[in-house]
Amino acid sequence: MKKLLAPIRAKSLKEVFIERFESLILSGKLEAGQRLLSERELAEALGVSRPVVHEGLLELEARGLVTMKPRVGTVVNDYRTNGSLAILDTLMNYYSGTLETKLLDSMVEMRILFESETVRLAALNRTEEHLKVFCRLLEEWDNIDLNDVAATTGLYFRFHHHLAMASGNLFYPLLLNSFKHVYVNISRQSFIDVPFMKQVTAFHRRIVEAIAAQDPPAAVETVRELIAYGVGHLKSLMNMGEREEAG
Q1: Which of 111, 133, 152, 221 gives 20 to 30 Å between its CA and that of 10?
Q2: 221, exposed or middle or buried, with CB in 10 Å at 0-12, 13-18, 19+?
Q3: Are residues 68 and 180 in the same domain?
Q4: What share of the chain in percent tops pLDDT 90?
Q5: pTM of the predicted model, to two decimals?
Q6: Radius of gyration of the chain from Cα atoms?
């Protein structure tokens, strides 16, 4: 019961400001190249202080949504050109945790590219210590409550993060950390199905077997099958939800 009762937290004015302008930009109501009102004018229009506006704009700039230009003002960016990894979380929040088809397809393409290379390198560069960690993670899979979505999504991320660690590439674990919330959010939407989770466990065991055997082609093939299986399951859940809404 306690797990379901997260503490209630009122959003700050800065957070509300940021969410308001994220929505305006991502919806296209504020177009790329459009100049915003001055900080003073924004503060007056929104009924907040100038420090709230200034700090909010700084955060929007950090996310690649706007650029603050001296003597010019704040200009809306094309987030596809100027955005950073932080924009992934923003996109997920904009879609209220659900997945727009183009966003899902883009994420899948990125995962196939990234994780195919990660698991290939892991099969080549893994150490005995890496294998011990993989074995411990598989033991967790065997003993975890598959109905506990928070636990399974957390373990799923840790497994794939360890793949990045085992690759030997210094940047890959950092990249995975950078979009952890998006990764977990997408996974969570599929992990409500216990039979699906049992198959995911089987895929992970095959990945570890291929890495232990230092067989890069088998490791790559299995991780691609895992991603395809997960996406197919998620899309079927999305279609089912759309049919229920329509009915």
Answers
A1: 152
A2: middle
A3: no
A4: 55
A5: 0.72
A6: 21
